[in-house]
Amino acid sequence: MVTTPAYPSAVSTELQPQGECGVVADEVSGTDRRRSVPALGVVAAVDLGASSGRVMLGRVGPNELSVHPVARFANNPVRTMDGLHWNILELYRQVLGGLRRAVREEPGLKSAAVDSWAVDYALLRGDRMLANPFHYRDERTAAGVARAHGFVPPAELYARNGLQFLPFNTLYQLTADHLAGNLDDADSMLLIPDLLTYWLTGHKVAERTNASTTGLVDIHSGQWDTNLITSLGLPPILFPALVDAGSQVGPLLPAVVADIGSTGGLQIVTTGSHDTASAVAAVPMTSDDGAYISCGTWSLVGVELEAPVLSEASRQANFTNESGVDGRVRYLRNVMGLWLLSESIRCWERAGASAGLGALLAEAASVPASSVSVFDVDDPRFLSPGDMPTRIGAHCAEHGLRSPRTRAETVRSIIESLAAAYATTLRAAADLSGKSIRIVHIIGGGSQNELLCQATADRTGLPVLAGPVEATAIGNVLVQARTQGLATGTLENLRALVADTYTPTRYLPRNVAMPGPHSPLRASRSPAKEAFAATHAE
Fold first, then answer.
1. SS3 of residue 138 by DSSP
2. Sign (positive/negative) of CA torsion 174, 177, 179, 182?
3. Are both 16-275 and 285-467+508-538 of the same fold?
4. Which residues contact 43 (CB under 8 A, 6 or more apart)?
5. Alpha-carbon span 121 to 88, nearest angstrom
6. Maximum pairwise Cα distance, the chain
7. Residue 115 · residue 278 · CB < 8 Å
8. What is the mean pLDDT of the segment spanning 414-440?
9. What is the pLDDT of residue 1?
10. To which CATH superfamily is domain 16-275 assigned?
């Protein structure tokens, strides 16, 4: 039995699938599940990123929050004859090893939860995985995009799911699989964190924040959009029951208990299983005028809202409305991110050159920002693995820009182009949502990149607060901690705990040509609040 979290409604709920799509029905018991907060407790966060994974222990108590790693491991995709795949069995082996070390260090570990990147999935028949999951950078999805848009036009899709167009969104991948006959033998589809949760517990569920990235969840009801699913020719039986972040899934399977050496009391719960949802939950925002950049392989740039923005202008700007923890809306755009830098480094290393990140950033810092080209980081040519420096040079040449001539210029050009994209995206977010932005929070691995943080402050004209680095793991831990009674209150209470225990690095804008320091980014429409209200008139 899967139970939902006590917050924010503080009621006990049992979730039962109804109909072919696992539609969830709520039954309110009226029992207040709030508990007194114990002195201290420990939970484990399994945090899988697109290039690496980690298992972190999180210690939470009154005015106390800390995380530390017990396992880190690479996440390297594998190319076979039929395309690019995730090595999901190796990832699961590493996760088991990390949990083994976690229970050895903390025998009283209360729970664990899994988060990962979005959109990718495994197809199953019964308890058997039919094939290794495809990587979202695999080229197979073009046919799925054309077929899906033939059935449902892009404008209608946006009105129904609120998602930014990305060619690898789950609905396009599933449509491509349908065309290839890959769905014929499948009776369930599990997103990556749900797959690992199933292997740990034997329970198939779909956590809501990650499910919202599939493009198959109704933006208004928060349930699987059965009509859309059938319109695309997809079998509704594939989709398991939706559950909220913070739901109790169940105990470990006996075989897993024996494997990791647990006493059997460890529970698996759901967190914001889309890693960005967990990361945003840990943004130390203490006011409602902050924006966030979750900066890693991708950069997720946006604001948090109470309701989606579904205007045609929002669709044309390619903004997405994804579910956040506690029903919040993550209104954001995906920007290509540090993938550009990491793939460039891989290219240089393959050529035999020493390419340490620290040394490259130091060299790039000596290159004047005004001397390098600012290019469109979201050009589709940058999506797939390959010779990124050559692609950047070709893009610049095609658009009348000066191509970088050295590695340092390439790195500086990437940094300045990312910062410019962040600034453009944040201005659009303010304009489209009607929300003023006075401060920018950069979280994740990119918060350690001083050159990028300063460039972002300069190009937005706003103060930047960088950190925490492990925001995703912290958010994962906090949602679990609240479920286990180690923390209490709203999302704002959880963020206040982050703000009290992690000190960010502050960067102030230096470029007077940009909006002045502390001058908020405001919506260009007037009056902004009326425009925002009109967006939600329905």
1. coil
2. negative
3. yes
4. 57, 58, 60, 109, 110, 111, 112, 113, 477, 480, 481, 484, 486
5. 10
6. 67
7. yes
8. 98
9. 55
10. ATPase, nucleotide binding domain (3.30.420.40)
CA distance 278 to 498: 13
Residue 521 scores a pLDDT above 90: no
The amino acid sitting at 1 is M
Helix (H) or strand (E) holding 490: none
Closest among 18, 146, 144, 132 to 85, alpha carbons compared: 132
Closest-CA residue to 353 (of 344, 361, 362): 344
275 is catalytic: yes
Whether the CB-CB separation of 87 and 142 falls below 8 Å is answered with: no
Q: Give rounded-to-5 percent helix, strand, coil for the chain.
A: 40, 20, 40
pLDDT over 50 at 528, yes or no: no
Question: What is the Cα–Cα distance from 292 to 294, expressed in whole angstroms?
Answer: 6
What's the rounded Cα separation, in Å, for the pair 173 and 178? 9
Mean pLDDT of the 164-170 span: 95
Give per-residue burial for 47-79: e unless 16+ CB within 10 Å, then b.
bbbbbebbbbbbbbbeeebebeebbebebebee
Angstrom distance (rounded) from CA 80 to CA 121: 17
Reduce the secondary structure of 230-259 to three states and give it as a string.
HHCCCCHHHCCCEECCCCEEEECCHHHHHH
Marked catalytic residue, from 47, 138, 275, 431: 275
- Omega of the bond prior to 520 within 30 degrees of 0, cis? no
The answer to whether the CB of 462 falls within 8 A of the CB of 521 is yes
Name residue 167's amino acid: P
Task: For residue range 453-506, list pLDDT tens digits in order.
Answer: 999 999 999 999 999 999 999 999 999 999 999 999 999 999 999 999 999 999
pLDDT at 538: 34
Token pair of 196, please? 């690992």
**Per-residue pLDDT tens digits for 209-264:** 999 999 999 999 999 999 999 999 999 999 999 999 999 999 999 999 999 999 87
Grouping H, G, I as helix, E, B as strand and the rest as coil, residue 386 is coil
The three-point CA angle 98-102-107 to 5° equals 150
Give the sign of the dihedral formed by CA 191, CA 195, CA 198, CA 200: negative
Domain 285-467+508-538 CATH superfamily: ATPase, nucleotide binding domain (3.30.420.40)
In one-letter notation, the amino acid at residue 37 is V
513 DSSP 8-state letter: T
Using CA atoms of 450, 456, 459, 460 in order, give the dihedral in degrees to the nearest 10: -140
Domain ranges of the chain: 16-275, 285-467+508-538
Q: For the chain, what's the residue count?
A: 538
| Residue 190 host element (H or E) | strand 188-191
List CB contacts of 4: < 8 A, sequence separation 6 or more.
12, 13, 15, 26, 243, 244, 246, 247
Q: What is the pLDDT of residues 87-141, one digit of tens each?
A: 999 999 999 999 999 999 999 999 999 999 999 999 999 999 999 999 999 989 9
pLDDT of residue 276: 96
